[in-house]
Prior knowledge:
There is one protein chain. By secondary structure, the chain is mostly helical. The chain has a single domain (11-332), classed as Farnesyl Diphosphate Synthase (Orthogonal Bundle). It contains 18 helices and 2 strands. A two-stranded antiparallel ribbon has the order 1-2. β1 and β2 (108-109) form a beta hairpin. α11 packs parallel to α18. The chain is globular.
Amino acid sequence: MTQTRSVEARPASRLAHVQAPVKDRLDRLEGEIRRIVLSDFELQNGVNDYLLKLRGKLFRPTLLLLASEVGGRPHGDALSLAAVVELVHLATLVHDDAVDHSVLRRGLPTVNHLWNHQVAIITGDFLYSRSVSELARIGRLEAIRALSVASNEMSVGELRQLVACDALDFSEEDYYRLIACKTASLMAAACDVGALVGLPQHRVAFRRFGHSIGMAFQIADDILDYEESEDATGKSRWHDLRERKVTLPLLEAMRRVGPDERSRIRDFFTRLAPADDEIAEIVGLVQEAGGLEYARERARSYASSAEAALDEVPDAGEAMSALRAASTYAVERSR
């Protein structure tokens, strides 16, 4: 029998669709990053080369480049600004892995695991400082302001997460405040800076779009930690629960389960090195309580808010269509 219903695109295909309008510039991004971080110190260049292997899907620079394309007047500075955004993101990942003592990032050993924690922290500082130097070279004060605010918020977010690791009294509002700092702040800044060199009169709308898509993106990421295998995520399976990090699926499950289940969860969070079967038990509790589905609903709500923000921008071109598709990708992707 002929199948009449089209098969839904896989997340990777969605990303290719999102990136299509700026693919030529994304292809040049690595070269731009290498130019910015080139050092006269062999060890630093070796770490930099390795980090570029850890490069992810370039979602943040994609958002910046797409925002700069809306209106059809992209500026030549957009590529350098996109490289800076990716470098700030890489610096954050290097620092986060060192803080969390993570051994895997995107399926490869982390910098702190392959070298040591000192090299990881110094490398993160190096990437940040080179980013600032490049912004100074470009000479756009508003870009410096937007990205420095995001960097500050991400630092505060990391401190919030450290405090929250064993805090099961962490509220849903606390969680949203945390991911607004750690994830949404840089995506908001990327969209803001993209609009700065595209349609500056719509920076507020693009910033709101970036914030909402960042919130959706992080909630979806936290769901994946419960669902995806290590091969799919490139990180240790159930990484957040191993680190006793409280995310939205668990928060909602805690609200829904009875006293006995809640006590089992609290007992789990007292263990320093939980076994896989103990983690699997908590994963099962969260799934049965509807924590994952609740988190999906919240991610979809933020994605809808992201699309609504774009309604304020009078443009129906290819870049705008790709930005709208990005809100779906943020929720439905695999890691």
